[in-house]
Write a structure and sequence with these properties.
Shape: elongated
Structural class: alpha/beta
Radius of gyration: 25 Å
Distance between the termini: 40 Å
Oligomer: single chain
Number of helices: 14
Strand order of the largest sheet: 2-1-3-4-5
Helix content: 40-55%
Order of helices and strands: EHEHEHEHEHHHHHHHHHH
Number of domains: 2
Length: 331
């Protein structure tokens, strides 16, 4: 495959019914909600206490939670907090339904991440409209997440074709996160950096396999073809808006501080920090793993090369120093 100009996804199977978890200790309230939602294509489940609710969410995450705040064992506030602080469940919409009239209670639920708030007695038609709206938003997020997963799977499949590069992007991502943490980068940015480094070589999908897997030295023409992979990867991922924070890694991980890199010849501070970090992580993993044309060097040898090349103009010196410290601790 010489070139990919776009990536299309189609013919997915029909989605299963959205699952709604009703969390309320009052059986009358539960039946009212069930009767209101039963005519729609929803899979309805019920929990009558907080412990059971958290257990069901952990076992099989619902698509939306209807949550009463005054619950036995574990309060609705704590359930909401648990859902929204867990990376695996934080995007599950939570509609709080309560008889509490105090403004402070409503404010606390919103601060904990509740997506909507209805005070009893509520309008049933309004409830249905809000449920449908939040389920639609959840489905859009799931579609984005699925598209990202497909791209990452494609990148992994590409690496799996070559014994020598298998697992490369995953190892690079681990190093990127370790270095990023030492540089004080927050968790949200680290997540984008992890994702971007997993996809940093996705553009190689558009590179000829005969060149990618060539055991000998590449010609100038072949090297130019290889060097097109950052811009190809950028073009593949740019249409997916959720990957926008990752694009600088995909496009710029082969730029150099001295401006001699590619594809844009950026230099110094023009190169985004995530791309600088990925550049050293990528180089370190390439040095320490076998390739068709050479054996991988020891970790100590690679670390010494980085120490000797701190001022070479290829990598950011501050990033290199952190990488060296991190890798020494890994031994």
């Amino acid at each position: 495959m010489d070139r990919i100009s776009s990536v299309c996804y189609h013919s997915f199977p029909m989605e299963k019914k959205p699952k709604i978890l009703i969390v309320d200790d009052n059986k009358v309230n539960v039946e009212v909600l069930r009767n209101q939602l039963r005519p729609y294509q929803f899979n309805l489940e019920v929990s009558y206490d907080g412990e059971d609710a958290l257990s069901k969410i952990a076992a099989a995450a619902p698509d939306l939670v209807l949550l009463d705040l005054m619950m036995p064992k574990i309060s609705g506030f704590e359930i909401c907090r648990s859902i929204k602080q867990n990376k695996e469940t934080q995007f599950i919409p939570v509609i709080v339904i309560t008889a509490l009239q105090e403004f402070d209670d409503r404010l606390k639920a919103i601060e904990l991440g509740a997506d909507d708030f209805l005070v009893k007695p509520y309008n049933l038609l309004e409830l249905t409209a809000r449920v449908k709206s939040l389920l639609h938003m959840k489905s859009l997020h799931d579609d984005l997440d699925t598209s990202e997963s497909i791209l990452i799977s494609l990148a992994e499949a590409l690496e799996a074709k070559d014994f020598y590069t298998r697992g490369h992007s995953d190892r690079v991502a681990q190093i990127v996160v370790l270095v990023g943490k030492q540089l004080g980068i927050n968790e949200r940015e680290l997540d984008f950096m992890r994702k971007g480094s997993l996809l940093h070589d996705i553009g190689k999908i558009g590179i000829k396999e005969s060149i990618l897997l060539k055991p000998g030295k590449l010609t100038e023409e072949e090297m130019a073809h290889i060097r097109s992979h950052p811009s190809r990867g950028y073009d593949i991922c740019a249409p997916l808006k959720s990957l926008e924070p990752c694009l600088s890694i995909i496009r710029s991980h082969h730029e150099r501080i001295d401006g001699e890199g590619y594809p844009d010849g950026l230099k110094g501070e023009e190169i985004p920090l995530p791309a600088k970090i990925t550049a050293v992580a990528d180089a370190y993993d390439a040095m320490t793993t076998d390739r068709p044309y050479r054996k991988g060097m020891s970790k100590d040898t690679a670390i010494k090369i980085f120490e000797n090349e701190i001022e070479s103009g290829q990598w950011d010196p501050d990033v290199v120093k952190v990488l060296v410290n991190v890798m020494r601790r890994q031994h």
